[in-house]
Design brief:
This is Protein kinase domain-containing protein. GO terms for molecular function: ATP binding; RNA polymerase II CTD heptapeptide repeat kinase activity. There is one protein chain. Helix content is 22%, strand content 33%. With 95 residues, the chain is of the alpha+beta class. The chain has one domain: Phosphorylase Kinase, domain 1 (2-Layer Sandwich). It starts with a strand and ends in an 11-residue tail after the last helix.
């Protein structure tokens, strides 16, 4: 459903609950200390965030075979840019 410099995001199904989730596969192609620190800081912040306007990090999975880290997020049907571009969609000031 999306990709960035260090990751791809997939729509997936949690095999235990059947729930649809967003699975962010983080690639560690460049394992320089600064990149690792950045990712650790991002995960630390995401684990602590609990706000209705922020997508929730539900879990973390690692794969030694693919040298990947998977972040499991609640699934949202649209991203902010997609919603902002929809006619008739209005946001409140707190949003």
């Amino acid at each position: 459903i999306g990709q960035g410099t260090y990751s791809n995001v997939f729509r997936a199904r949690d095999l235990e609950t059947g729930k649809i989730v967003a699975l962010k596969k983080v690639r560690f192609i460049n394992q320089d200390p600064e990149s690792v620190r950045f990712m650790a800081r991002e995960i630390h912040i995401l684990r602590r965030l609990d706000h209705p306007n922020v997508v929730k990090l539900e879990g973390i999975v690692t794969s030694r075979m693919s040298c990947s880290l998977y972040l499991v997020f609640e699934y949202m049907e649209h991203d902010l840019a997609g919603l902002a571009g929809m006619p008739g969609v209005k946001f409140s000031e707190p949003q």
